[in-house]
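Before the break, one more example. Copy the sequence into your notebook; we will annotate it together after we see the structure.
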Amino acid sequence: MKAYFDTTVLVAASIASHPHHSQAVTAVRAVANKKVTGYVSGHGLCELYAVLTRTPFHPPVHPMEAWKIISENVLAHFQILTLSAGMYRAILQEYAEKGWIGGRIYAALQLRCAKKAACERIYTFDLKHFCELAPHLRNRICAP
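Here is what the structure looks like once it is written out:
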């Protein structure tokens, strides 16, 4: 099975005290064990680094620790997806025309990557926004 992993899932898998850690880490381990083909976006990786190093976790995540988490748990096992310049332009135009504002554009980018890879599952803990942005993918969007 091909599965796309949203940043919310990767953060939860990375932080043992996160309320969704057990279910997220189980899904990430399925990728590491080659039971699932895992996909992430390049911009999602950067978002993961930003969240890990900026969120006030106790103890805080040092930048080198964030790099170690990402390199060992994600880069070693997941395929990285990117979008073309034209895809970014189309997404920005679409969301501007719909009058949508704020950070949901990042979810839109992740959804476009998942669609590009034809993933059968899109794992996220932001179910509401993902389903609102891509109702045609609702049957693929779920929490791990």
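The chain has a mean pLDDT of 96. The first strand starts at residue 2 and ends at 5. Try to locate both features in your own notes.
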